[in-house]
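Give me the fold.
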Amino acid sequence: FTSEIDQRIASPQYLNNSQILYSFLKNGKESLFVWDLSTNKSTLYNEQGNRLRRPLVVGNDVWVMSDLNRVFNLYKISGNKLSTPKTHVKTTVLDYAVHPKTGSVFAVTMSAEGPLLTYFAAETLNKNIKALPVIEPMIGKATKLPAAVDVETTTTAIDRPYKLWPHYWIPFISGSSASNGVLLSVATSGNDPTLQHAYNLGFVYDTGIEETSYNAGYMNRAYKWPWSLQSARAARNFAGSDSIYYNQTHAFSFVPDTSKFSDYWGTSLSYVYSKYEDEVATFERNGPQATFSFSNAKQTLWMISPEEGGSASVTYAHYNKSSRLKEYNQYYLNGAYYFSHWLPERHVISLEGRALATDQRIPSILGDSSTIYSNALTSSFLIRGYLDSQFVGRNIYNANIEYRFPMASYTKGSGLFPLYLKRIHGAFVADAIALDGFAYKQPIEANVRVKSDQVFSSAGAEIKADTTLGYVIPIEFVLGLHTPFQPAYNEDLSMYVQIKSGIGF
């Protein structure tokens, strides 16, 4: 049974083993109906009042919100008829829940100060209420109400430190930048109830190089212009070498509110300090940075990927002259587009591109390096089938194309075992990268200088399983197999296993 464009089905639940009770809005009137699973037909259950909302089956009772007197109050349904009112509020009931054992009610009621969470003890429900007077909607017309049960409320200060304390950790596992280890990472986030303060926090331990990286961010929305603080430290291994290098970035940003112009656009204005360190050199940089972004890609729970729209961002950074570097500018471009027209249901073609451009000759390592993981932890220039960090450059151009398709839908678990399998899907992928910098030649174990007219590419396939772990954590398991097309740099077929959050695209 499907509703039309101007209709709405809401609150379906089993009335018994063969019948489903639900509310149905049509032509401005909302009534209760019962769908019979044996006949696949619907019959009217109750239509008293202009609107009947949120039917709730509690034991042998059916509760409902009705505007029988033009203000929503709670009723029970007896013999397909409304009982006497269970509540008598002067404004309206917005939502409710009934305790299955005691019969008491928690309800959201409207007050002079806005929605209010209200408790009704079982013994006070239906107390001396025979019928409620009709509340006339005409402005200025006085309506005398009988005495209603006053609601006593208390207020307490928000326990802000507790609300901001981490309440969950999402794990990730993927390959290390070294050949003999893995990346073990956890991420969390939080905010207070008013959304004035929010943060994100992540830690990465690389067992191959025995180093820890982190990424932290804080957003303050208490002022007209929100502002944020970001801090990150990344430790990585040069491909084919035991040498380790470190990148630190700290930034203070303003985030102007652009929602009045469009929900799709965003911007941030920052001042950034960066520091690079390895065994022989240290470079420090600082300067202003601006980012402009756009995104209209959307993904529902039923999609394995966004199916239309796209995203794009442009970042400009100006670095001031320092003791070891002259003044220079960097530009970072990132874009994605999703296409599904004329394809089978839930099949998607994803096109992604990235570019980093630097206007002065600086050490290549002050640009960026490549990664082999689709949910990049320390870089976004994706080239699968090679080594992690195999390509390093001050100018980098990267493209990825994927054909994503569903394989099986399970949506089931096994009893209380804390793993719920939602679906399995796959992708055929192809990657390409070009750069001004250095590339590691694995067969001869040496770094060589390359220019952007040389393109490195690969292709492969991935199988992904979307699951819910521990009852609440969305986790995606990825198995990938990729082949490089430049054997002079890497001649081996590459396989990897990755565990990551299933939230992202």
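The radius of gyration is 30 Å.
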